[in-house]
Amino acid sequence: MDLSLDEQILILIRERGPLTAEEIAYYLRRDIKEIAEELQYLEHDKLITRVKRGFILKKEAFDLTPTGLEEAQKAYEKLKSISERIISQINNMSDEELEEVLNQYVSIMPLIILLNLIPLELLMLMGLDILLIGPVIIHGH
Fold it and tell me: What is the pTM of this model?
């Protein structure tokens, strides 16, 4: 069970509020063109809407519609379930097995870490390379 890019975007907007395409790309560690394309699909499906953000310099951002909020909640529950499964398996895994599991979910790890669904301390104890998650932590402060 993995999370699609559109589900990741919906979760991120749900948790962080209206975001620009650049911010979404940064948080999810994806190419801006890939994000822009996915945002068009989400907007076409009426899951997100464009809003203006900022007082002086108005930036175009994306926010959830009521339908988008419902879909984001479902996706969040799915992500939470994945995170809980990873945590429950950690204690009984060898380093190789752990690496295999983390590699399986590499595309959603930035979101899992950003939302603290797997505590950073636990990931550090597991020996996850801090360089992999550095920018997410720095931006989160």
Answer: 0.81
